[in-house]
C-alpha cells in the first residue's frame, strides 16, 4: 500500500481529479448559467465558482502536495520552493479575481456583501491564504530571513497550509449548495428538490471536490513520520531552509 | 508552545468550545425556530441541527482527541478504549436520531429526500461513520480479532477518524447556510441578506463549529511524531492493542 506505485498513483489521481473539477465547474456555468462576461451581470458572477475552485482548491492542492514528491527532496530546493510559491501566487491571483467578480456583481445588483455563512467562511479563508503566502514568502524565499524565524514558522506554515485547504473545500461545498438554492428555487421552474440535470451535475462537482480533497489530504498524511525515518530523505520543508 | 500547559489549555478550549456550540444550536432553534417536538412538523426538524452538531461534531470531536491525553497512554488501555467507543456510540445514536428527524419531517410535508449537496455529503459522512464504528469495534474491542487485522486497520482507522470529522464540519456549515436561505428568504419578512439577529447568531454558530474543528485538528496534529519519540509514551492507538 505504501509502495512507490501507490505513491505515484495518488499523485496521478490528484492531478486528474483536479482537472475534472475545473472541467465540471466550467461546464456547469457554460451549459446552465449562460457562460461568462465581466459586466456586473450574472454572467460575471459565473467567474466566481470557476476561479475559486480553480485557484483555492485545485491549484492550491497541487501546490501543497508538491513537497511530498520524492523528487523534491534533493539537495537543490530552490526550484521546488519557487514552483510552490509560484503556483500559490497564481492560486491567490485567481481567488482575488473570483472575489472581485462576486463583489462587482453584488454592487451592480445592490445585493448586500458578506452576509451568508459561506461568505464569512470564504472571505476568512482567502484572508488566511493571503497572510500565509506573504509570511511564507518573507520566511522561506527571502534570503535574508533569520533562521530562528524559519524554524518558528515552519510547523505553523505546514499546519496552516492543510487547514486553509480544508476551509477552502468547506467554502466551496457551502457555496455550490447556496448557488443551487438561489438559482433553482427562485428563478426556475425546475426546483432543486426535483434534482434537474444541473443540480445533479453541480452536486457531482461537490462530490468531486471532496474526492480531490481526500486524495490531497491522504498524500499530505504520508509525511514526516513515514519519510523522515533514518535512511529516508526528508521532505523539503522539514529540512532547514 | 508545546509545553503541557499549552497541551491542556487546548483540551480545555476544545471542551468549552464544544459546549458553547451545543448551547448556540439549542438557543437558535428555541429562540427563532419555535422549539422542539416529534410530530413531523418543523419543530421536529429542529432536532436535526441540534443532534447532528452535538453528535457528529462535538461528541465525535471529544472522542477523537481522547487518545491525545497523556493520561490515556498508560498500560491499562481498556478503559480508554471503552470510553472512546462509548462516546462514539452515543455520537452515532444522536446522529441517527438527527437523520430520523429530518426524514420524518420530509415525509410529513412530502419533501423529496437527499437532493441537496449538503444532504449528499451528510448522508455519506454518516454512512462512513457507521462503517468506521463497526470496524473499530470488531478490530479493537473484540478480544478475538487477529493482530494482522488490527495492524492493517490502525492507520486507516486513525486517518478516517479525522476525515469523517472534517466531512461532518463541512456538512454542518453547508447545512446551516442552507437552512438560513430556506427559512429567512422564503417564509420571513427578514431576508438573510439583511443579516437579522437569527442570521448573525446562526452564522456565529458556524464560526464556532469551525473554531472547535481547528482546535480538535490542532490537538490531533500533535501526535505520533511528537509524542512517540524515544522516552515518551506512545498514544494508545499507536501501541499494539
Automatic annotation (TrEMBL), chains A, B:
EC number in record: 7.2.1.3
PROSITE patterns, sorted: CYTOCHROME_B561 (PS50939)
InterPro entries: CYB561/CYBRD1-like, Cyt_b561/ferric_Rdtase_TM
Annotated keywords: Electron transport, Endosome, Glycoprotein, Heme, Iron, Lysosome, Membrane, Metal-binding, Oxidoreductase, Translocase, Transmembrane, Transmembrane helix, Transport
Gene Ontology CC, one term: late endosome membrane
Domain (Cytochrome b561) ranges: 13-221
Lyase keyword on record: no
Catalyzed reactions per annotation: Fe(3+)(out) + L-ascorbate(in) = monodehydro-L-ascorbate radical(in) + Fe(2+)(out) + H(+)
Quaternary structure annotation from Swiss-Prot or TrEMBL: Homodimer.
PANTHER family with a match to the protein in the record: CYTOCHROME B561-RELATED, LYSOSOMAL MEMBRANE ASCORBATE-DEPENDENT FERRIREDUCTASE CYB561A3
The name this protein goes by in its record: Lysosomal membrane ascorbate-dependent ferrireductase CYB561A3
Gene: CYB561A3
Amino acid at each position: 500500500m505504501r509502495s512507490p506505485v501507490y505513491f505515484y498513483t495518488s499523485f496521478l489521481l490528484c492531478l486528474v481529479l483536479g482537472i475534472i473539477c475545473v472541467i465540471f465547474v466550467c461546464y456547469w456555468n457554460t451549459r446552465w448559467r449562460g457562460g461568462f462576461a465581466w459586466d456586473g451581470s450574472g454572467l460575471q458572477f459565473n467567474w466566481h465558482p470557476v476561479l475559486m475552485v480553480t485557484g483555492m482548491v485545485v491549484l492550491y492542492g497541487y501546490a501543497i502536495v508538491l513537497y511530498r514528491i520524492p523528487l523534491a527532496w534533493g539537495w537543490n530546493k530552490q526550484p521546488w520552493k519557487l514552483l510552490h510559491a509560484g503556483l500559490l501566487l497564481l492560486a491567490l491571483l485567481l481567488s482575488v479575481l473570483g472575489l472581485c467578480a462576486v463583489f462587482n456583481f453584488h454592487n451592480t445588483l445592490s445585493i448586500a456583501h458578506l452576509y451568508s455563512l459561506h461568505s464569512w467562511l470564504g472571505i476568512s479563508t482567502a484572508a488566511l491564504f493571503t497572510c500565509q503566502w506573504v509570511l511564507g514568502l518573507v520566511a522561506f524565499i527571502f534570503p535574508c530571513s533569520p533562521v530562528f524565524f524559519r524554524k518558528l514558522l515552519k510547523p505553523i506554515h505546514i499546519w496552516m497550509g492543510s487547514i486553509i485547504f480544508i476551509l477552502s473545500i468547506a467554502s466551496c461545498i457551502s457555496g455550490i449548495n447556496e448557488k443551487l438554492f438561489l438559482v433553482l428555487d427562485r428563478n426556475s421552474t425546475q426546483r432543486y428538490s426535483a434534482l434537474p440535470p444541473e443540480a445533479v451535475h453541480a452536486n457531482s462537482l461537490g462530490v468531486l471536490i471532496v474526492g480531490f480533497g481526500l486524495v490531497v489530504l491522504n498524500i499530505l498524511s504520508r509525511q514526516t513520520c513515514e519519510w523522515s525515518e533514518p535512511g529516508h530523505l526528508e521532505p523539503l520543508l522539514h529540512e532547514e531552509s
